[in-house]
Amino acid sequence: MGIAKHLIGKPASNAELAKNPLYRNASHASSKTLLGVLALVAAIIALSFVALATGAFDTSTSDTARVLLSRLGIGSASDVGRTEQAVIESIRLPRIALALLVGGALSTAGTLMQAIFRNPMADPGIIGASGGGALGAVIIIFIGLGSVPFLIPTASFIGSMIAFLSVLSIAFVRNQFSVPTLLLSGIAISLFLGAAVSAIILMTDNFTAQREMLFWLAGGLQAARWQDVGILLPVTVCGAGIAFINSRNLNLLLLGDDEAESLGIRAGAFRVRMAIAASLLTGVAVAFSGIIAFVGLIIPHAVRLIVGADHRRVVILSTLSGALFLLAADTVTRVVIAPAELRVGIVTALIGGPVFLAMLIKSKTT
Amino acid sequence: MTMLLIFLSTTLAILTASCALGDVDTETASPQTPSTSVNHPGANPDYRRFAEVEGIVDPTNFSWPRTVRTSEGEITIDAAPSKAHALSLGHAEIMLAIADPDRLAASYSFYSDPTISNIVDEVAAIAEIGSDPEEAVALEPQLAIASRYTDPDLIAVLKSAGIPVMRAALENSARGNIPNILLMAYALGEEERGIALANEIEQRLSKVASIIEGAPVEPHQKPRVLMASQYLTDVWVAGRGSTEDGIVEAAGGRNTAAEAGVQSNAQSSIEGIAAMNPDVIIIAQPQESGAEFVKLLKSSGALAEAPAIANNDIHIVPARYFTTLSHWNVRGIETLAQVLHPELFSDIEFKDFFSPSPSPSH
């Protein structure tokens, strides 16, 4: 009951928000945001086509276009080779979709976490969702059920939710929600879960199982299937939608809890709602991709460096940028040493780290 | 997420150490006499083979003390070690082929994993230790044999405890390991068994090579072989420079991953396999998980036209012959040769390598 009571919030009115400096020049900001969104959508479409036409197996651009158009009901691709069609439709297309969804989900979750904690170093893992997901997956592999269809993603998601709810319940001390307690309990539970994952890996005598655990934890999108996309799509769209709808209230959190409360936001309950959305996004992304670092931490931060702190811009641009970034990283992963592949986590770190540092230095010198 | 990554890094570091390193046991080595007595140069077998071995300081000296020089420095071994600690699976496999099993100071858990180990039965009676360096020190071995992957910290701990450490860098080629086998045999005082093992390796390799070379097959007609394995959703292939690469070549095949530019063992994908278009796919992993992988390969539309799938030329073979770094790779070559050239090898029965039993005196 205590938690439920805090989940009820009231959005700030437009009149109240108009007093906020973040909302001045709103129409100018909106047009810039729209331009940014359009540019990112165009980039995503262009990169998706490049990714669809590129890979270890040689496929021509025209054949790729014909297969794609025939999938959309335009024209026919009957003269395109059977293998070529299968590579494009059954391997690359779901992988591209999964990369976009996982990147968008992680980035949105990161944006929410950074807003909730008013801390640019917060990432989706800070509430235990990543660690819980990892533990769930590792346990399933440890008991030898890793090959049962959908069991690892399911266990990973359940692990994420259990970990997050544990963190959340600890944060409700005497029915009072506490952000510092949420942060500290998240760190403590993440450490505990990390230790548990390490212990299980070290206790595993089976060489194959040990490798499976490490490879799963290292993250990747190579096993993407349409079924995965079907599960991830509604969660990501809903999560990003919730974040976007609440972007004005996220702005109010930046002013401090007292200010937010005075503008009609129940800061504690609002944070809990946003944390639930972030944990759902993280949990489902981790379930299908393993742990992919950097996206949830760096993308929202980088977007904020470019467009400022207004979450009406940051949320949507972060979601799209995260999707674009992970698609780019995964395409590099597939192409650079084809027919072998790199690990996507390595590529996100290799690309994301230097780019982010360059942006950071530039922002400090201008 | 950051914290989790720190944990994972730590775990990986510990795992790397545990896979490459030493072991544990409270058992104290008691001085024993090795089963092979001191031998003399010039006698049969051919002790001149030791002259070719890098690391033997005086290849004419077959008495004790004797000195070996490896990348871990020069060590003098006063007497044939009654207990030696093998810090990698490959070293343990070699040691158990040239020395009595009770001279192996301890085993690790992965020595007992039938997926990767060829000495499961032999180490069953040997005390198992963990990755704590203290456990390795507690064994008080008279010699520790490290690989190039052994944790330097462990080596430092062993050295600081006064345990002589030699490094025999195992090669991913059965023939290339012969000098390392002879070096280990010299250090253990098992020259005759070392030479016998080296001879057996050469004879078995020559036998396979002569049969393949005698067949009317042009180089371009050799089957294009892909050695692949699957760990959950990850597909891995063996490229140039991998242990499997040498095995495929020696078994009369062409390594299609190496030809496609894949280096060493690398992650790939179903699309990658389609691009490599192999004639034969060899899956070196346990039967159960191998069967799952076969099912995946056969169900993929992207592979339907690949010759290996179209002709159902997919084979599951024991991983332990292919992943280890020891003379057991010869069994991998023999196994693969039978798979690739059944018409040439159908009448030949290859046997496993022999491991000496403990001598009655022990």
Low-confidence stretches of chain B: 12-43
Compute the average pLDDT of chain B: 87
- Global geometry of chain B: globular
The structure class of chain B reads alpha/beta
Task: Please name the two chains that share the biggest interface, counting residues whose Cβ lies under 8 Å from a Cβ on the partner chain.
Answer: A-B, 60 and 54 residues
Query: What's the N-to-C terminus distance of chain A?
Result: 50 Å
Element string of chain A (H = helix, E = strand):
HHHHHHHEEHHHHHHHHH
Number of helix segments of chain A? 16
Tally of alpha and pi helices of chain B? 15
- Give the tally of β-strands of chain B: 11
Gyration radius of chain B, to the nearest Å?
22 Å
Round the Cα radius of gyration of chain A to an integer and report it. Answer: 21 Å
Contiguous low-pLDDT stretches of chain A (5 residues minimum) are 1-12
Q: End-to-end distance of chain B, in Å? A: 54 Å
The helicity of chain B comes to 25-40%
Which word captures the global form of chain A?
A: globular
Give a quick account of the main beta sheet of chain A: strands, pairing sense, barrel closure. 2 strands, antiparallel
Question: Would you kindly provide a written description of the structure presented here, covering whatever features stand out?
Answer:
The complex is a heterodimer of chains A (366) and B (362). Chain A has 366 residues and is mainly α. Helices cover 75% and strands 1% of the residues of chain A. Chain A has 16 helices and 2 strands. Chain A has helices at 2-7, 14-18, 26-53, 61-71, 82-116, 129-142, 151-171, 179-203, 207-218, 226-245, 247-254, 257-262, 267-289, 295-307, 311-335, 344-365, and strands at residues 172-173, 176-177. A two-stranded antiparallel ribbon of chain A has the order 1-2. In chain A, helix 6 packs parallel to helix 13. With 362 residues, chain B is of the alpha/beta class. Chain B is 38% helix and 13% strand. Chain B contains 15 helices and 11 strands. Chain B has helices spanning 2-20, 89-98, 120-123, 133-138, 152-160, 178-188, 191-214, 243-250, 256-259, 270-276, 287-299, 307-310, 320-323, 329-340, 342-345; strands at residues 66-70, 73-77, 84-86, 143-146, 165-167, 224-231, 234-238, 254-255, 265-268, 280-284, 314-317. In chain B, strands 6, 7, 8, 9, 10 and 11 form a 6-stranded mixed β-sheet that branches. Chain B has a 3-stranded parallel β-sheet with strand order 3-4-5, with helices on both faces. A two-stranded antiparallel sheet of chain B has the order 1-2. In chain B, helix 6 (178-188) runs antiparallel to helix 7 (191-214). Chain B is globular. The model of chain B is unreliable at 12-43 (pLDDT under 50). Chains A and B meet through helix 5, helix 6, helix 8 and helix 9 of A and helix 1, strand 7, strand 9 and helix 10 of B.
